[in-house]
Write a structure and sequence with these properties.
The structure is a homodimer of 227-residue chains. Chain A has 227 residues and is an all-alpha fold. Helices cover 59% and strands 0% of the residues of chain A. Chain A is built from ten helices and no strands. In chain A, helix 1 packs across helix 4 and helix 6 runs antiparallel to helix 10. The structure holds a DNA duplex (30 and 30 nucleotides).
Chain lengths: 227, 227
DNA sequence: ATAATTGTTGAGTCATCGCTCAAGAAAGAC
DNA sequence: GTCTTTCTTGAGCGATGACTCAACAATTAT
């Protein structure tokens, strides 16, 4: 929810409008803009930045890396995205709306039972995390684990997203207990913590070279703990 | 096993003898050294470096951070430990010999059954990872997840340690199946991957604020998947 | 046309990075 | 004592970090 916020004391002129206040228009309305048009595709540049942050993490990705991968000069980057931190936040927002970043939310919304939802989440994680079409693992889990103290806010941002996911898991499991899908002595918070632990572990395993088959076996074993 | 190795092309003069070729003498033999004695306690300095790397990770820990925490000047650090990379490798070696870093190896050596060993490992991880007497989680798991490309070797070092642990797990489980402790259709590699996944996830959870009680419940749930 | 607006460019800012080195200080050897 | 060895010190190295800015280019508005 938090917006841009400059690191230095400059009077905040960056991040003109981007994709945040899209209101009710989901796609770019063909309104002709005023000045010189951008020479690069904003979505493509954002995707390139996403790949870099996903693979290297926030701190290890330099602005020089970013401008090279995005095919633009620093001035364009700062004019279009604010600063490095704002760019990262936009990357995280977009990742959360992408299929790869939202598969858990989608499964929770679509599956009628809690078991069905979490079984699907674990099995899809096993397929998605090692998928070679993108960097291994989950960006939210692994892109800001080692950060310098001055970038602690970035670490906190992702940590809060992870813990919010845990609370969503817990709420769904609480509902399942009320529905009688889980026994009355089941512990929603404990089960949510366990499932979150397995998911985060699977992301790390994928980054360490585990294959989709490896993770699929892990997912099936993990599901045997279901009450 | 690899020793020092300079990053730049200088003819390698660093890391005089440190603690590596300790031969058969486990403690420092009281042999009086020749020149000016060091003005700092090497073990204490190493412990301070360990805390920093453990908390921030390799890249996010600067040499300036290190010298401040260790109470020495850069020249002393480089004379005593080689370069930043060698210092980190020594930190990792010492961590692997410490109680906190070796609890899994100890449990595997001491427990007669595989189940006993892995149940103890999960329960001890639940107690150790969030212990406030040191940084949260496991240094080997979390100290080199986001590293710049030029430090990829550090990432590879810890990754290899993690994968070696997985192979140790797998060997112990293979033995358990041969002993009849596990059913003939049990899959040692899959089970090792699952247990490693849970352990790595618990480390991340501890870094995200999970308490010892939280992780203890996770450990018990994880053990329910045992064949 | 001219003005206003927006984007790009390339050179450049200051801070910090890992790291080095000559000079001096503290010990044992002689 | 003097010599040799080892460690500490403080200044400083080149490279890279995130970031800025004046000048120019490309578009719409009038």
């Amino acid at each position: 929810m938090s917006e841009a916020q400059q690191t230095t004391g400059t009077p905040a002129k960056a991040a003109p409008e981007g994709a945040a206040p899209a209101d009710t228009a989901p796609d770019t309305p063909p309104r002709p803009r005023r000045g010189r048009p951008p020479a690069f595709d904003r979505a493509e540049a954002l995707a390139a930045a996403t790949r870099l942050f996903w693979q290297l993490g926030y701190d290890a990705t330099s602005v020089s890396d970013l401008t090279t991968a995005m095919g633009i000069r620093p001035g364009s980057l700062y004019a279009a995205f604010g600063d490095k931190r704002s760019l990262f936040e936009e990357v995280v927002r977009q990742y959360g709306r992408s299929p790869v970043g939202a598969f858990a939310t989608v499964a929770l919304a679509e599956e009628p039972t809690a078991y069905g939802a979490f079984a699907r989440i674990l099995r899809e994680a096993a397929a998605i995390y090692p998928d070679p079409s993108h960097p291994a693992g989950c960006l939210v889990i692994s892109a800001a684990t080692n950060v310098a103290p001055q970038d602690a806010g970035v670490q906190e941002l992702l940590r809060e997203l992870r813990n919010a996911n845990l609370r969503t898991f817990e709420a769904r499991l609480h509902q399942a207990r009320q529905d009688g899908e889980l026994p009355p002595d089941a512990d929603p918070k404990a089960l949510a913590g366990y499932l979150g632990t397995v998911i985060q572990g699977m992301s790390q395993q994928a980054r360490d070279g585990a294959t989709a088959a490896d993770l699929a076996r892990t997912a099936e074993l993990a599901l045997r703990a279901w009450p």
